[in-house]
C-alpha cells in the first residue's frame, strides 16, 4: 500500500507542470527586437499575399477551375497556419510575456500539425489534378467535377484532423515535471518531447512511424503524378506544346519542392539527432517563409493568377 501511494504521488508530481515558457525567436536578447520586426513584416506579407490569392480566385470567373479551387484552399491553410504560430510569438516577444498554459500549448500544437498535414494532402490532390489534366485531358472535366474537388478537400481536412489528434495525444500523454522552458518560438513536438520526464523513445518512434507513412505516401503519390506528367509531356512533339503543358505545373512543382524541402528537414529526423538551432531555423522556413513565398510563386509564375491580381490591384506591381 505504501509503494502504491508513493507511485501515485510520484505520478502526480510528474504531471505538475501546467505552464510552459517559450524561448522566443532567439536566445540572444539583443536580437529579439530585430527578429520581431523582421517576422512581423513577413507575417503581414504572408497574410496580404494569401488573402489576395483567395480574393483573386473567388472574383475572377476564369479561375473557377479545380486547380485554382485547390490553390484557394492552400492559401486559406497558409493564412491559418502562419497565424497559429507568429502572432502569439510576436506579442510574447514585444510584451515580454513568454508564458503559455498547458491547454494553450496543446491547442497550438494541434492546430499547427492539423494545418501542416492538411497542406500536405492538398498538395497531393493538386498533383493528381495536374496529372489528370495533362495525361487524360478528355475525361478531366468529368473526373474533376465540383463534387470530386469538394470531396478531396474534405478528405484533406479530415485526414489532417485525425493526424493532428494522434500527434497531440502522443505528445501530451507524456509527463512534464521539471524544466518547462520550450526552446522554440511556439509549441512544437521535438522541443516538447525533450522536456518530458519519462522516456519518450516509444512515443517518438510511433510518431515518427506514423509521420513517415503519411508523408512518404503523399510524397510518393506526388512523385508518381509527376512521372506520368513528364512521360506525357515528352510524347508531345511540338516544343510549344511541351512548354505549355509543363508551365501549368511549374508553380505547383516549386511549392512541392519548398514544402517537402523545409518540412523534411524540420520533422523527418529522430530527436537524438535534433539540433535546437537547426530545428528553429527549419521551423522558420517551414512555418513562416513557406506561407509567405507560396503567393509569390503563383503570383509571379502563373499568368492567369497574375492577370487576376492585376485586376484586383490595377496600380499594383504585377
Automatic annotation (TrEMBL):
Q: Where are the transmembrane segments?
A: 37-57, 69-89, 109-128, 149-166, 208-229, 241-261, 281-300
Q: Drop me one GO molecular function for this one.
A: olfactory receptor activity
Position of the signal peptide: none
Q: How does it sit in the membrane?
A: Multi-pass membrane protein
Q: Where in the cell is it found?
A: Cell membrane
A Pfam family (short name) is 7tm_4
Question: What family name appears in the similarity comment?
Answer: Belongs to the G-protein coupled receptor 1 family.
What does the function comment of this entry state?
Putative odorant or sperm cell receptor.
Q: What is this protein called?
A: Olfactory receptor
